Amino acid sequence: MTTKPLPEHPDFLWRNPEPRSSYDVVIVGAGGHGLATAYYLAKNHGITSVAVLEKGWLAGGNMARNTTIIRSNYLWDESAAIYEHALKLWEGLPAELDYDFLFSQRGVLNLAHTLQDVREGMRRVGANVLNGVDAQWLGPDEVAEVCPILNVSPRTRYPVLGGTFQPRAGIAKHDHVAWALARRADELGVDLIQGCEVTGFLKDGDRVVGVETNRGRILTGRIGLAAAGHSSLLAQRAGFRLPVQSHPLQALVSELHEPVHPTVVMSNHVHVYVSQAHKGELVMGAGVDAYNGYGQRGSFHVIEQQMAAAVELFPVFARAHVLRTWGGIVDVTPDASPIIGRTPVENLYVNCGWGTGGFKATPAAGWTFAHTIATGEPHPLNAPFALERFTTGALIDEHGAAAVAH
């Protein structure tokens, strides 16, 4: 790991070039997935004539708004494979990118409050172990050992009957992840173009040949969409529909506290998840707002409910003050699994539908999407997540593993 000081302002980590008239590949969306895709296109496939177009500022969408949880304890084989690949990449990325983004493998604890929760948790642990994912089933006493401040009293409204635990899971500093990917992609020759909104697509018959933007026309042979909650709008401009609904997803953060919360705790039944960031603030979230929309904000009742749930699980937080709240836009598919692959438009590829699980998948999403764009064929890890599964019926239902929208 380098010891040389990094610039105080992230803009100094990469160039801010003017867009060229043409590129081999254009990526729409400079969030974690777009940046990772560009990085792996250059690193793994030698494609450096790449532009990453961002209508706002780099990593200012969901990458700046997520709660930074990283885990791979998904139920189905297809999901476990891609998320476990992501987790293995996470473990080596700080050294590979030469940037410390504070990846902390403090574990993720999913609580069980009912007999059904217990059965489902044990089933998932068994499936995880068969897929080579580190997973454990903990009883109430073991849960208390992992997280001493958690209320495990049998007299609570929803007593803790146990929980699943993934020790290798954890959190990372999301902004630093984006800056690390951006810096390395820039060094490899990728153009990161901020303030450049795609307003339309140039077509020659059934294939795309470029994009129209607010900064002019850009010709290209291949386009990758990595715009998360706005993916369906871009698809509509390209002439096809995606089975995606966009919802606001809120999170909130407290004032700074001394380190008291050693892991990440999730509860579907009480409906909240809580972690403590590196600086000391408590980071909390819950489910999506029920309505569809593209506003990066949410309803007050969701904030109230998740604060009440957090205090129910952690009475010690009763006097903590909420510092701020924010919202992102999550793109949810009918089976709560992503779409990564080709589209009905030739040379146009899409990476979307990650819902609430996009951040944890960042390196694997970039790895597989770059492979798909570079070769024209899906990587074995993302082949099951093709758009065609919604017509063939080969769905990958991960609604249960979404774990309180995370």
TrEMBL record:
Catalytic reactions of this protein: sarcosine + O2 + H2O = formaldehyde + glycine + H2O2; sarcosine + (6S)-5,6,7,8-tetrahydrofolate + O2 = (6R)-5,10-methylene-5,6,7,8-tetrahydrofolate + glycine + H2O2
Residue stretches making up the Rhodanese domain: 25-69
Biological process annotations from GO: tetrahydrofolate metabolic process
InterPro entries in the cross-refs: FAD-dep_OxRdtase, FAD/NAD-bd_sf, Rhodanese-like_dom, SoxB
Cofactor needs: FMN; FAD
Enzyme class: oxidoreductase
One cellular-component annotation, GO: cytoplasm
PROSITE patterns: RHODANESE_3
Sorted UniProt keywords: Cytoplasm, FAD, Flavoprotein, FMN, Nucleotide-binding, Oxidoreductase
Keyword Nucleotide-binding carried by entry: yes
Homology family: Belongs to the SoxB family.
Protein name in UniProt: Sarcosine oxidase subunit beta
Organism: Streptomyces filipinensis
Gene this chain is encoded by: soxB
